[in-house]
Amino acid sequence: MSPLLDSGGKTMDFDEALDRFHDYLKYVRNMSPNTILAYLKDLERFKSFLREHSLDYTGIKRRSIESYMKSLSKSKGRASGLSVSSIARNLSSVKSFYLFLFMSGEIKSVPTDLVKGPKLRRRIPEYISYENVQKLLSSFSKTRMGKRNKAIVAVLYYGGLRVSEACTLKLSDVPIIDEPYIRVRDGKGGKDRIVPLNSQAAAIIGDYLEIRDSFPNAGKTEALFLGTRGEPITRKMIPKMLNTQAKKAIPNIHVHAHVFRHSFATHLVQRGVNVKIVQELLGHSNLATTSIYLHVADKEKRAAVEVLYTSPNR
Questions:
Q1: Which three-class secondary structure state does DSSP give residue 181?
Q2: Does the structure show a pLDDT above 60 at 9?
Q3: Are residues 180 and 75 in the same domain?
Q4: CATH code, 300
Q5: Same domain, 157 and 242
Q6: Is 14 in contact with 47 (CB distance < 8 Å)?
Q7: Which residue in the list 150, 193, 212, 284 is annotated as catalytic?
Q8: What does the pLDDT read at residue 284?
């Protein structure tokens, strides 16, 4: 691939441009590490395509970008390629990269301007009932790990947190005295937010905090949730724990880590909470993203009126 001249007159290859894009996302856009990682992963895939087809990324044309998008639908190693949502995300990453290069004065036009992504079907979020959430919460043991795991579920459900946000919580982020809340630092899009906690959630987290110091090396880290050796928990630990516990407490109910965030939002909307408030609690930048939960409530209302057409004797 041909090099690119940077603003100082030095040649810059794709990797150098990628490094500068990383700094832009981190220091200018204030994006979270996980979001930045997703961008870079997508662009590494794009880099492989460029190399495979001997394309110069500084002079690439719209037609080549469209060919790249088609290639994602039949990726190597996968019969059907990437999902529609993954393809759309990849295009978004490439568009952001080229827009950055254009704004920096490093290219004269944006080759992705007229490239259209795949049409996304808006799926109604999967959620579980309030009763099943309570069954799961009540199923945890009184052991140290049981109290920790119960507190994790409480944070995911009562706080509506993403798994990555729960893993990065610090002790100081969850004050439970007087008016308890969760402070989410550097959430998606690099935004902070405050989520108030109700008394039940505060009590569950408080039970865990009482025994947190019994974890090995607990005094050496500010992380809220600790692993068996006293290390901060990782994103991989939570789904495994949830799957194991759900099979015991609510068998035949599909549970994944993000289902609690969906359930949090859905239950709030069902109870009449203004969608703007739900948007703020979830940390969504776009109201349209939150509005999908209105469709869940509408679907249940439609199901409710359908009973009028059903014989009570059936």
A1: strand
A2: no
A3: no
A4: 1.10.443.10
A5: yes
A6: yes
A7: 284
A8: 83
Tell me whether residue 256 is one of the annotated catalytic residues.
no
Q: How many CA atoms lie within 13 A of 254 on its CB side?
A: 5
pLDDT at residue 202 tops 80: yes
How many domains, the chain?
Answer: 2
Per-residue pLDDT at 296: 67
113 within some domain? no
Q: Give me the amino acid identity at 303.
A: A
- Dist CA 174 CA 168 (whole Å): 12
Selected catalytic residue, list 147, 162, 193, 212: 162
Closest C-alpha to 165, from 245, 278, 281, 22: 281
Is there a catalytic annotation at residue 284?
yes
| DSSP alpha helix (H) spans, the chain | 14-23, 33-52, 62-72, 84-103, 130-138, 144-158, 163-167, 199-212, 237-249, 259-270, 275-282, 287-290, 292-306
- Known active-site residue 314: no
293 tagged catalytic: yes
Q: Give pLDDT tens digits for 94-133.
A: 999 999 999 998 889 999 988 888 776 666 788 999 999 9
Tens of pLDDT, residues 154-192: 999 999 999 999 999 999 999 988 889 999 987 666 678
Contacts of 300-309 spanning 24+ positions with Cβ under 8 A: 300/270
| Residue 119 in domain | no
The CATH number that applies at residue 28 is 1.10.150
d(CA 142, CA 309): 47
- For residues 158 and 90, state if they share a domain: no
User: Are 15 and 61 in a shared domain?
Assistant: yes
262: annotated active-site residue: no
Full residue range of the structural domain in which residue 193 is found: 130-305
Which of 85, 103, 121 is the last residue before a domain boundary? 103
- Give the pLDDT score at 3: 42
Of 103, 120, 140, at which residue does a domain stop? 103
- Examine the domain organization and report whether 174 and 271 are in the same domain: yes
What tokens does 101 get?
A: 């290069």
At residue 233, the pLDDT reads 95
